[in-house]
Amino acid sequence: MERELLIEEVKTLLDLVDCNSTTLADSVMEIDATEYIDSALFQQEKIELFRNYPQFVGPSCMIPEPGDYFAFDDTGIPILIVRNTEGVLKAFVNICSHRGAPLNECDHGKARKGRMFSCPYHGWSYDLDGKLIGVPFGKEGFDSIDRSVLGLRPLDVQEKHGCIFVMPNPELTFDIDQVLGGLEERLSGFGFQDHYYLGAKQVHTNFSWKLNMDTFHEYYHFEFLHPDSIAQMAYSNISTYHQYGRNHSMGSPTLQITDLKTVPEDQWNPRSYSSYVNYIFPNVVIFVVEDHFQTWRVYPISPDRSVVYHSMFVPQAPANEEERLERDAYHQMINDVAVTEDYGLVDKIHRGLNCGIDRKVLVGRNEPGVQNMHRQLHEVLGIDQV
Ligand code: FES
Ligand SMILES: [Fe+2]
């Protein structure tokens, strides 16, 4: 956010702290408990939200240089994204045209010699634009093939405002501005596209991907579930709320925010006194906090299993080993809070939802972020609002 917007946000947060209130939705929302566990709905979600809907992959700084690539296989279609020799992003279905092996051996790295992928199975090679450029023993073994049509299958990938999105379904395209819905104003102004990627932690969970996402969208639970961790840093149940297309952004005050009352406004450092949850529909949160940001990408595996990637981006590469260890320890600490405090409880919530009792889940007026995610899901999936 540019400074002007940050100042405005901090002023709103100070007002909310003064009256001990939060931004409210119009009414209480009810969600049918079966929405979290229904297997037919799960299959529909896999197709409409993860195969046919553009996916936020990460900030541009995740793959900054020509030859850098990122691969993931969590949407149902294996995806390979690479920055080509001209610096333009390309994305492909990550399936070799020979017998179908994925082309990379790790999820994040540098293409071979910075300019090609060589299949680990029989060595077919492709340039960074997906063209088939090498077939070992090709003259004899594959004398009749037309190499010009055996390149990698391209996917629509777009990069703007420091964000990378990809469409998993090779038949579909998208409009990145429409997908962002203006959310870029919440990501601009702090060098989002130029940070250093510290790495990601992968966590498997035994509950619905939607229950996982619900934990990010409200501050109501801080004082009860996180009394000794997050509630020591930020106010419970106080936040701003802003809608951007299907996405939203929420600001939260630190416990020290009232110190700003004695500081002239032109000397404020708003980021030290507030943090921001930016939700990108359907499955991503970009958390902007203090001097860095984190992304949480959540993918469904089955109705009762999901996987989360928690990535950390810092303003610049750690200057030495000590600084790296410090950053890593912080990354681990935040991840541990989510796993031990949030996920430990959400695991039990899933079992309760799964026990066959007909009931509604209630989402309060003070939980507008949770409401928005489910409202958008209902709209895309064609579920009548109860
Ligand atoms: S599967 Fe890739 S070269 Fe055989
Ligand atoms: Fe939490």
List keywords for this structure.
386 residues, alpha+beta, Naphthalene 1,2-dioxygenase Alpha Subunit, Chain A, domain 1, Rieske Iron-sulfur Protein, 7-stranded antiparallel beta sheet, 20 strands, 27% strand, binds FE2/S2 (inorganic) cluster, binds fe (ii) ion
Radius of gyration, rounded? Answer: 22 Å
Q: Compute the separation of the termini in Å.
A: 36 Å
Strand content range: 25-35%
Unreliably modeled segments: none
Tell me the number of strands: 20
Please tell me the overall pLDDT.
96
Using the 3D structure, state the CATH architecture of the largest domain: Alpha-Beta Complex
Would you kindly provide a brief summary of this structure?
The chain is α+β, with helices and mostly antiparallel strands and 386 residues long. The chain has nine helices and 20 strands.
